[in-house]
Amino acid sequence: MGLLEGRTAVITGAAKGIGLAIATKFVAEGARVVLGDLDLAAVEAAADGLGEEVAFAVACDVTKLDQIEALLRAAVERWGSLDVLVNNAGITRDATMRTMTEADFDLVIDVHLKGCWNGTKLASAIMREQESGGTIVNMSSLSGKVGMVGQTNYSAAKAGIIGLTKAAAKEVAFKGVRVNAIQPGLIRTAMTEAMPQKAWDQKMREIPMGRAGEPEEIANVALFYASDLSSYMTGTVAEVTGGRLI
């Protein structure tokens, strides 16, 4: 029996990177998954790779409450429950505060913070009516702990996700719904590997373990939070950073 046997999980931003790694891990542990992403072709390909008997894809813009509602409803209609939500969708629009546009600030806040709120609000409403409750995992970032130059939008959004997680956890715990967050550090994805070598090298010097993390290592922590292994944990934040900036 897998740790998520018979459970239904929804993961946003699941077409690639950390989101797809989480979906893959969940399926390996017995879950049925719904993959949400803006890029329908890419997320359909990801779902096909996992197998139609355990995965399907839905186009979803997490900034739109009605689209999150449709994503979650699709999971319940197909498999009868919503047991896990991972709010993972995210983007970057890095620039110094002096040069950052208002549009890029608003967009990053909307995708990360509002998108996370949309998912947490609607998923918890479904989960609190189930006898089994449910678990919500929100993806923050080390940038939300320390703040990063060129990321006043991203750092603000990721810090906000921590506050949202703790407040939501207090509101829904009595109904058997747990809400936790993960703060990844430097994780090897297409997005991070596209950064200038100088920036990559600087970040590497800050990591006591001397290496970047892999998406699967974030997926392992998401599995921990999604499963009964963390049954007495809510409102917590797991730093998965290799010891960076502790």
UniProtKB/TrEMBL annotation:
Please indicate if the UniProt record lists NADP as a keyword.
no
Q: What is its EC number?
A: 1.1.1.100
Where do the Ketoreductase domain residues begin and end?
7-190
The record's annotation in SUPFAM superfamilies points to: NAD(P)-binding Rossmann-fold domains
Superkingdom per UniProt:
Bacteria
Q: Which UniProt keywords apply?
A: Oxidoreductase
A GO term for molecular function = 3-oxoacyl-[acyl-carrier-protein] reductase (NADPH) activity
- Pfam families per the UniProt record, alphabetical: adh_short_C2 (PF13561)
Query: Can you tell me which family this protein belongs to?
Result: Belongs to the short-chain dehydrogenases/reductases (SDR) family.
- State the name under which the record lists this protein: 3-oxoacyl-ACP reductase FabG
Q: What's the source species for this entry?
A: Pseudonocardia benzenivorans
